[in-house]
């Protein structure tokens, strides 16, 4: 068992962190790991002495932290959710209403399920959803963040497993409940955007645009600039898929302006890529190359050389389509020097070196398949940094 001094440190660090006060990230992580490593009985004993470890407020704070970490650090979100389950289990009926305790335990298991989905552990996610569902069913408290949000997680699991029809059915029904029964317009927007993305995956582009429009209407009323920016970007993707490149560029420009208001330079640079690619599709090669060059420079400044290299490949592709072969070879040669100085991943350097060698051999007359091969590798390298670059078995000079 921890000493009294360690107990105090645990509560102090946890309380400060959850209140949003300054504490080193390492201290916070150490406290989380210390608390999770305790045997269940030892955690109960500690919670008897430290009110912060048996508090509904702590459950809420841990859930908020876990949710904020979901997309960028799902494993850390999972650790927080596991601690949250322990705190929820330690809640006392003499101090908190019994229904609130049951709902809190459902919330904790719901956040565990969300983290497991992000990690890709669907088997455990299904078990966590079932556990949360059991708690919510036993509870007479009905809140939008309870069973309806859990229903969206069920839909996400179905979507990830390829069962789009059932996922869409659940998400659509949940969206309607958020708007009509719970009057939770923020969550309605989230659910409707989710529906739109499923429709996009299914190739139902007109329906996806309608769903995005519905979500955008409410998001505008809520003055939710962030959601509006992402909806505009998604609308651009949808219009691109059906060949409406001018409309797509307009949506990307709108999204870029909104991201500028939000001071999100990475998203701004991503919109420039899409605008540039859209201009290529419309034959506006000079404008496209200018836009892509700006995007490449922005990613280099942001310390994202792999993405910058992907943008450079889009520039090569634009020059090939414009039949400006004499510019391809110097561009490929220049990429090597630029990205070496930017500390580009060694395997990414090898991939660009392969393309540069081909460009030199062919006098700049690369094939689009050559560029796509290297671009696909760089995209996979972002998610799998241990990948090794291998040139195609048959490379024609």
Strand content: under 5%
Low-confidence stretches: none
Structural class: mainly alpha
**Count the strands?**
0
Number of helices: 19
Question: Helices and strands in order, then pairings?
Answer:
Blueprint (H helix, E strand, L loop, with lengths): L3 H15 L6 H13 L2 H10 L6 H14 L4 H16 L8 H22 L2 H16 L9 H14 L3 H17 L4 H17 L3 H17 L3 H17 L3 H17 L3 H17 L3 H17 L3 H17 L3 H17 L4 H16 L6 H16 L14
Helix pairs in contact: 1-2, 2-5, 4-5, 4-6, 5-6, 6-7, 6-8, 7-8, 8-9, 9-10, 10-11, 10-12, 11-12, 12-13, 13-14, 14-15, 15-16, 16-17, 16-19, 17-18, 18-19
How would you characterize the overall build of this protein?
With 397 residues, the protein is mainly α. The protein is built from 19 helices and no strands. It has a domain of 141 residues.
């Amino acid at each position: 068992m921890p000493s009294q001094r360690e107990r105090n440190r645990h509560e102090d660090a946890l309380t400060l962190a959850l209140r949003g006060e300054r504490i080193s990230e390492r201290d916070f992580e150490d406290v989380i790991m210390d608390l999770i490593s305790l045997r269940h009985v030892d955690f109960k004993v500690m919670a008897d002495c430290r009110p912060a470890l048996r508090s509904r407020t702590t459950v809420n704070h841990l859930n908020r932290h876990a949710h904020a970490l979901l997309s960028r650090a799902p494993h850390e979100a999972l650790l927080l959710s596991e601690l949250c389950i322990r705190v929820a289990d330690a809640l006392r009926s003499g101090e908190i209403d019994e229904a609130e305790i049951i709902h809190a335990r459902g919330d904790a298991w719901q956040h565990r399920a969300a983290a497991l989905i992000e990690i890709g552990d669907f088997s455990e996610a299904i078990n966590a959803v079932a556990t949360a569902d059991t708690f919510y069913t036993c509870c007479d408290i009905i809140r939008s963040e309870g069973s309806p949000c859990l229903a969206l997680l069920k839909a996400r699991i179905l979507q990830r497993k390829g069962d789009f029809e059932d996922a869409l059915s659940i998400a659509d029904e949940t969206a309607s409940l958020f708007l009509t029964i719970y009057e939770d317009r923020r969550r309605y927007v989230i659910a409707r955007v989710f529906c739109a993305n499923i429709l996009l995956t299914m190739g139902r582009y007109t329906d996806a645009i309608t769903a995005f429009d519905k979500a955008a209407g409410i998001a505008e009323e809520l003055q939710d600039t962030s959601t509006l920016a992402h909806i505009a970007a998604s609308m651009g993707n949808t219009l691109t898929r059906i060949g409406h490149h001018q409309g797509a560029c307009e949506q990307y420009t709108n999204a870029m302006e909104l991201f500028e208001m939000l001071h999100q330079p990475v998203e701004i640079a991503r919109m420039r890529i899409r605008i540039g690619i859209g201009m290529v599709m419309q034959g506006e090669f000079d404008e496209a190359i200018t836009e892509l060059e700006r995007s490449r420079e922005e990613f280099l400044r942001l310390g994202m050389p792999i993405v910058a290299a992907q943008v450079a490949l889009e520039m090569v592709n634009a020059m090939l389509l414009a039949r400006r072969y004499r510019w391809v070879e110097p561009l490929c040669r220049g990429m090597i020097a630029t990205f070496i100085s930017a500390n580009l991943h060694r395997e990414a350097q090898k991939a660009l070196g392969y393309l540069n060698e081909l460009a030199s051999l062919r006098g700049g007359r690369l094939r689009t398949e050559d560029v796509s091969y290297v671009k696909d590798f760089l995209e996979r390298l972002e998610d799998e940094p241990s990948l090794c670059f291998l040139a195609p078995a048959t490379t024609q000079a």
